[in-house]
Amino acid sequence: MASTTRLKTSQSSTPYLRITADEDYASTDVAHTDPKTTGLGSSVDIPLHSDGDTTWDTSNSVALTNLNVTALAGTTSAPLLLIHIKHSGYKEEAKTNVSTAILKVYMRVSDTNSYFTLEPNESITLHGFGSGSDSSAEWGLAAANAVGLYAEVTTCKAA
């Protein structure tokens, strides 16, 4: 019997408007009423690999203490199937000191102008990489300021 490695995931997003406090009412958040903001989410079951022989790794989790881009460890011998990146909301792995720094995620460590950001406690799961981004060594992380943060990274590669 054949096995496959699959990813089942769901995501939901709701934009809110923050109504500021005044003398009679506390501030409150109200879901945005623009109809284009409804349905921002998905639920999907995605095949990642044609067999179940995969390698999961969390060794790329890293404490970032300066503004330098830190490349994730990796090789090109096995293609990257999935990368999950989470801004832990803390400065270190022990999770004792809260961090407000923003995490920058670089798809190419050589291009420090192209990145996306994650806020504290935010995460993203990415898959479906092209040949220019299917090695974890091509990915990099940096803190947006020097207060530091701990990024949790899990990768999945074909074995």
In short:
The chain is mostly beta strands and 159 residues long.
Overall shape: globular
Overall domain count: 2
Distance between the termini: 18 Å
The DSSP helix count reads 0
Taken as a percent bin, the fraction of beta residues is 35-45%
Structural commentary:
0% of the residues lie in helices and 43% in strands. The chain is mainly beta and 159 residues long. The protein has 2 domains: 1-52, no CATH class; 53-159, Jelly Rolls. The strands form 4 sheets. Strands 5, 6, 8, 11 and 13 form a 5-stranded antiparallel sheet that branches. A 4-stranded antiparallel sheet has the order 7-12-9-10, with no helix packed on it. The protein has a two-stranded antiparallel ribbon with strand order 1-4. The radius of gyration is 19 Å and the shape is globular.
Chain-wise SSE layout:
Layout lengths: L4 E8 L3 E4 L8 E4 L9 E9 L4 E4 L4 E3 L5 E2 L8 E8 L15 E4 L8 E4 L4 E5 L12 E4 L5 E10 L1
Which key phrases capture this entry?
four-stranded antiparallel beta sheet; Jelly Rolls; single chain; mainly beta
